[in-house]
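User: quick one, fold this
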Amino acid sequence: MQVLKAHATVVAGEIKAAAAPHRKTGAFEHGIKVRRHRKGYSVNLEDRNSASINYGHFTKAGEWVEGIHAIEHVVGAGSGPRSRR
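Assistant:
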């Protein structure tokens, strides 16, 4: 179980590092948490705007704002941190 926690902690740290250059309020980074559950650990994005920040969104004026894609830079197709490939 400790291996799973360690892996989740590495993934969370790498997502935070990928998001750091895009920081405005820090809420996205602070909302990246490692949580224990019945079968192991997960990396949770707890900021309510996480999806919009990461993947992009339209403004009220209808303009597209590109996401920072921090998750994709770290985890590709569920295979774990890219630095370990």
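User: anything notable?
Assistant: Confidence is low (pLDDT under 50) at residues 79-85.
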